[in-house]
Amino acid sequence: MSVSTGKTAQKRGQRKNNLDIPQRLLDRLTPSVLETPRTSHQEAEKPRNETLTLDKLFNRYYTARQAAGAAERTLEDYRKHMNWFRRFLANEYSGLDNFVPNRDVIRLWISSMLTVQKLKPSTINIRLRTVKAMFNWAMSEGIIKESPFENVELLKVPEEDFQVISKAQERKLFNCCELTSFTGLRDALLMSFLLDTGVRIGECMRIFAEEVDLQNRSASVRAESAKTRKARTVYFGARTLELLVIYLAWHEMNGQARNLFLNEYGQPLDKNWATRCISFIGKRARILGVRISPHTFRHTFATRYIKATGDPFSLRRLLGHSSMEMVNRYVNQDVADVREQYEKFMSGGTERW
């Protein structure tokens, strides 16, 4: 029997042992364990040889936003806006298979939304921001070198006066609700709740019945339900309280879900259906000149609040805005309001010549 020398043993696969590791363990280690670590994460990554398509890019972006804790409403908007973009590409570039667009394609999309779909600049900008954010993310991740939105500007949005519901129109709306029926009671409560709290319709549909505090006349908007992912408390008045007392008695007996607003079968009310219900009531009340929608109720609440209190900072918290930019638009009142405030100022008297 021959005995192997050190040199022969190394030739058979034994490695140089500078770490005082027993040879029996050293023989079981793979070569990569003892190699000097690479100096950077980039060097360790191997480039992927895959064709980049719009669908693959969106799926990676969507997963990243989901992992970052984006709200379900935000993720839903991502899907919706990307589907509109895909639809445009399918119509204009039917022979191409999910290609990654360039700057000219983005400009053609903007032109199509303006001239063919007749969309408002504000609506177009919302869609553009979603798609632009995806390409900006792809650049930051090193997936692409240049965004097709480079040097493509958002559209200028003319400042429009907010539509608000007058007290007379409000009375007409509530007169159309038959409080002896479930749907009439629920719809009256829904309108009153929106007018009193200013919550977004999506947030409103996700409020649970147990999150309503009758004693303090308040309701909680959970962080996961809020558009900005920040929890807040909203408040309501005497009319909403009276409707809630009657409605919650029905909810306790017939409700099959925790959500405050339910359909006639005891299931959660869908926000799109709730929007249609409010619009239908507006048509029955023959309201003209004002679009009867949940967002108009939100504008009405904000306008009335700022006129009554003059405090935009507390309004921001009640509305759940992350900045003062949107709230400041309510501060910029129309000409009639400015004239009214000026007359109050002048009524204090001024020096005469």
From TrEMBL:
BP GO annotations: DNA integration; DNA recombination
Domain Tyr recombinase: 160-343
Keyword check for DNA-binding: yes
Keyword Transcription on entry: no
Listed Basic and acidic residues bias regions: 38-49
Top-rank lineage group of the source organism: Bacteria
Stored SUPFAM superfamilies: DNA breaking-rejoining enzymes
Domain Core-binding (CB) residue range list: 52-139
Gene Ontology molecular function, alphabetical: DNA binding
InterPro entries cross-referenced by the UniProt entry: CB, DNA_brk_join_enz, Integrase-like_cat_sf, Integrase_catalytic, Integrase_recombinase_N, Integrase_SAM-like_N, Tyrosine_recombinase_XerCD
UniProtKB keywords: DNA integration, DNA recombination, DNA-binding
Chain residue ranges for the region called Disordered: 1-22, 30-49
Pfam families, sorted: Phage_int_SAM_1, Phage_integrase
Listed PANTHER family: PHAGE INTEGRASE-RELATED, PROPHAGE INTEGRASE INTD-RELATED
Sequence similarity: Belongs to the 'phage' integrase family.
Entry protein name: Integrase
